[in-house]
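re: that complex we talked abt at group meeting.

here r the seqs, copy pasted straight from the sheet so there may be weird spacing, ignore it
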Amino acid sequence: MCLVNGETQDHLPIQDRGLHYGDGLFETMAVAGSKVRFLDKHFERLEWGCARLGIVAPGRDVLRSEIASLSGAAGKAVIKLIVTRGASKRGYRPDPMSEPTRILTVHPWPEYPQRCYEGIDARICETRSGINPALAGVKHLNRLEQVLATREWSGERVREGIMRDVNGRVVGGTMSNVFMCCTGELVTPQITECGVRGVMRGVVIELARRRGIVVSERRVELEDMLQGDEIFFTNTLIGIWPAVRIDNEKFAVGPMTRALMQDLASLGVAACAGRA
Amino acid sequence: MCLVNGETQDHLPIQDRGLHYGDGLFETMAVAGSKVRFLDKHFERLEWGCARLGIVAPGRDVLRSEIASLSGAAGKAVIKLIVTRGASKRGYRPDPMSEPTRILTVHPWPEYPQRCYEGIDARICETRSGINPALAGVKHLNRLEQVLATREWSGERVREGIMRDVNGRVVGGTMSNVFMCCTGELVTPQITECGVRGVMRGVVIELARRRGIVVSERRVELEDMLQGDEIFFTNTLIGIWPAVRIDNEKFAVGPMTRALMQDLASLGVAACAGRA
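got the structure back, here u go
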C-alpha cells in the first residue's frame, strides 16, 4: 500500500529529484495499535530537516490524515514517509516552482528475535561516514555510506555495525544511534558533524534525564566507547538493543540499559520481542 | 523520452533503492550528430563506479543499443543514464537478488551563451563537500551537497560555484571539475577524498599531456588556486569554460586555456556556443 501525494500509486515520475540526487528526507515510523508512536517527534524532525534543506514540509494535517488512512488497518506495522523536493529539469539547481513529493508506504512489522533484547553482537565497520555539518542530523536520502557499511557482513549473528567518521570518531550504528554508559554517565556521539538525529535517541535522552542521569552528547573516540561499562543501540523500531559483543570485546547488559528499557516499555515501546 | 530497463516508461517503482538511499550512479552524456561523445569513457567510469558500490553494471551492448534508439532521432541532445541497485525491501542492506535498474532519458541540448566560452563569473560556495574516500570519484546519486551549493545563488551572472571540502581544500565546481594553470603547470584537485572523476577532466588531462604540459593532481588550497594564472572549469556538456572572475578576483583567459579549448574543438567539443 502506497500513497504518492495522497493518491494510491506504486510508482514515481522519473523526473523526481529524490531519485536523481537523493534530494529529500525520510521518516521510519512504528505503528502499534493502529497509531504511530512519537508521531509529533517525527513531524518535528521532518520539519527541522526540511528547513535545513530548503524543502517545504508537508502540512501535519495532511500527513496525519494520510497516515491514518494507512495505519488504520495495519495494527502493528512500519510506515515510511519520504519527502522529496519534487520533479525538476535536469541539473542540481532546484526549480523554485517544484512541488515537493510526499510518499507514504506501509511495511510489515519486523519481528526481531527475543535475543536482540537480551543483547546483540555488533561489529566495527570499515566504511566511514563523511563529515558535513550542513547535513548532520538530517535523515536525508543520501545513504550510500550506510548501504556500503551493511554490505560488510552478512548473516544474522551480527545485528548492527558501528560506523566511525573519517577522523575515526564514533558516529552511531548503520541504522541506529549508539549510547555508552561510563561510570554513571550516559554518553552518545554528538550529531553536529555527521550522524542522524534519531527520534528514539531523543526519547532515550529525555528518559535518562528524567531519571537524573547525566547525559553527554560529545565526540566519542572508539577506544573510549569500547571501555564503556554498557553499550546499547536505539532506533524507532527496535527501541533499545543492548550490545553484548563488539568484534571481540564483550559487554554486560547493565543496570542503566535495563532501567531505560523498562522506561521505554512503560511508554509502550518493545523491550522484548513481540511486545508493541 | 525515457527507457526503464529497455521499456518505454516515465516512472519508477517506489521500492527502487535509487529513491530510498541514492543507491546508484549516473552518467550525463553529450549527443552530437546523433552519437554520444566519449561513450567508452562514460562506460569505463560507470563500470568503475559500479564496482566501487558493488552494483552489477549493465552490459555495454545493451546500453549501446538503448542509447542508439534514443539518440538516433535526437541530433544534438543530452542523454542521462541512471543505474540503481534496483528494488528491495525496506532497510539499508541490499538484497543480493535485486536486479539493477537502468534508466535512460533524453534532454534538450543546453544552449549555453557564447560569453560562457569567453569567460564566466564564478563564486566560492559556503556549502562544503564531505570527505569520504569510499565514495570519492564516483558519480553516485548522493548529491545533496551539490544541490545545496547551487541554492546559494540565483540569476545568470554567476555561472558556477567552487566547492571546498570540510578542510577548506578545493574540490571542484558544483557541476564541473576545476583546473588552474600555475607557472606552466596544469593543476587539478585530486579526487581521492571527494569530488567526481569527470570524463571531460580525464580528456583535458590527456590533451594537456599530449602537448607536453605537466599535469598535477593534488590537494589544492583555495588561496593557491586564486593565485593561479588561469582557471577553467570542465564538464562533458560545456567542454571548457574559462573563469574571468571568482568572487572579487579577476582572471585572464590565458594561453594554456585557449590551447586546450582548441584541442577540444578539434575533437568536436564545443569551444564556443552553438558548436557541437
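couple things i noticed - The mean pLDDT of chain A is 95. The radius of gyration of chain A is 19 Å.
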